[in-house]
Specification:
Structural class: alpha/beta
CATH architecture of the largest domain: 3-Layer(aba) Sandwich
Radius of gyration: 20 Å
Distance between the termini: 56 Å
Helix content: 40-55%
CATH class of the largest domain: Alpha Beta
CATH superfamily of the largest domain: NAD(P)-binding Rossmann-like Domain
Largest sheet: 7 strands, parallel
Bound molecules: nicotinamide-adenine-dinucleotide, magnesium ion
Number of helices: 17
Length: 387
């Protein structure tokens, strides 16, 4: 029996992971499931799968969780400390699917035990890539990518010599605003930004896809995870989301990874790696798809992509600043306090302000430095907004 924990079990990735596990329940022993405010879902899943512990991130929801789990034998816990304790519980495979930099600390804790960490939480790699990879290396742990593009690149590299890779191309659907003018983007509403043309995901990543901040994070994620140089990594807009990534080799060959836009593919690949197992995902009918369209991305209408280039060039703490400023700006957009394009303006302002005040460059970092930079970036977004 494989022991499994899922951080962010109540979210879109967490639920897709449980869907795969549900199909072969006898093979898995669920150790910990964690969630946020959706106590009913968390308790329901924890009881169904017989988890040892269920953790809500919110301290003030502990009594609700206890009540929902009463008589089930599942232990209830709450708060950031309980999340770390859950990460300390021994497991063979841990899904990191909390949204945002909040996923960093539990992921780091889990790696200390030499586990396999299936990483959907791209923000932790963007924020503190060297810490995560360093911890995995020193504890004999493994990080497997779950982001669809990164799983595709990972699969494209199997059996290959990385030194023979010339470039890596990750695709972007282009989101709901692919054809919009700058003027239209200025007035884009929360409701419009919350509709994704090809993927069904959590609200925050859906809006990040509309602004291309998601692809910006993924560029940095590609650099951090695989160690390619920024000029080897490209974005290609591909409406339809059939091709997830391409790996180009020095002989000019381009190997593409195709699949239906269903995250259970990348999750299932990480769950069964290094084997491939039958997965309940639709098979692509390319005759029906007919045409695969590609376009160059537009860094003027989608400034997040330009900012990601700067962050990749700077390295060090700039990823933590970029991600935290983006999260804070997204909070303001969701609260209807700033416009759609203001998000990138705030992120650019904070990156500039903070590179003037401290050196963001360099690869040596500690968790404290990262958390401080994260906090300062968020504070600066909110302060700049209320000025
Ligand atoms: P979601 O919003 O659907 O779920 C997020 C989960 O994190 C929920 O369980 C929520 O309760 C929990 N959570 C939220 N804030 C928290 C906090 N402060 N502390 C602890 N837990 C908290 O998000 P999602 O779409 O499932 O995405 C999860 C992660 O996977 C993100 O990093 C996202 O970028 C990445 N990802 C998602 C998709 C997708 O298809 N949804 C694809 C690729 C990568
Ligand atoms: Mg992705």
């Amino acid at each position: 029996m494989r022991r499994i924990s899922i951080f962010g079990a109540t979210g879109s990735i967490g639920q897709s992971t449980l869907d795969l596990i549900r199909r072969d329940k006898e093979s898995y022993d669920i150790v910990a499931l964690t969630g946020g405010g959706n106590i009913d879902q968390l308790a329901k899943d924890a009881i169904e799968f017989g988890a040892d512990v269920a953790v809500t991130a919110y301290e003030n929801r502990l009594s609700d969780l206890r009540a929902a789990l009463a008589g089930s034998g599942v232990h209830a816990a709450a708060g950031p400390h309980a999340l770390l304790e859950a990460a300390d519980r021994e497991a063979d495979w841990i899904m990191s699917a909390i949204v945002g930099a909040a996923g960093l600390a539990p992921g780091l804790h889990a790696l200390r035990h030499g586990t396999t960490l299936a990483l959907a939480n791209k923000e932790s790699l963007v924020t503190a890539g060297p810490l995560l990879l360093g911890s995995a290396q020193s504890h004999g742990a493994r990080i497997l990518p779950v982001d669809s593009e990164h799983s595709a690149v990972f699969q494209g590299l199997v059996g290959e010599d990385k030194s023979e890779v010339e470039r890596v191309i990750i695709t972007a659907s282009g989101g709901p605003f692919r054809d919009w003018s700058l003027e239209q983007l200025e007035g884009a509403t929360l409701e419009q930004a919350s509709q994704h043309p090809s993927w069904d995901m959590g609200q925050r990543i859906t809006i990040d896809s509309a602004s291309m901040f998601n692809k910006a994070l993924e560029l940095i994620e590609t650099k951090e995870y695989f160690g390619f140089t920024p000029d080897q990594i490209e974005v290609l807009v591909h409406p339809g989301s059939y091709v997830h990534a391409l790996v180009g080799f020095k002989d000019g060959a381009l190997m593409a990874h195709l699949g239906a836009p269903d995250m259970r593919h990348a999750i299932g690949y990480a769950l069964h790696w290094p084997e491939r197992r039958d997965l309940p995902v639709a098979r692509l009918d390319l005759a029906k798809v007919g045409t695969l369209r590609f376009e160059a991305p537009d860094q003027v209408r989608f400034p997040a992509l330009r900012l990601a280039q700067e962050v990749m060039a700077t390295g060090g703490l700039s990823g933590a600043v970029f991600n935290a400023a983006k999260e804070a700006a997204l909070d303001l957009f969701i609260a209807n306090k700033i416009g759609f394009l203001d998000m990138a303006r705030h992120v650019e302002r904070v990156l500039t302000e903070m590179s003037d005040s401290v050196s963001l460059a360099g690869r040596s970092m500690t968790l404290d430095m990262v958390l401080e930079a994260d906090k300062e970036a968020r504070d600066r977004v909110f302060a700049g907004h209320s000025n």
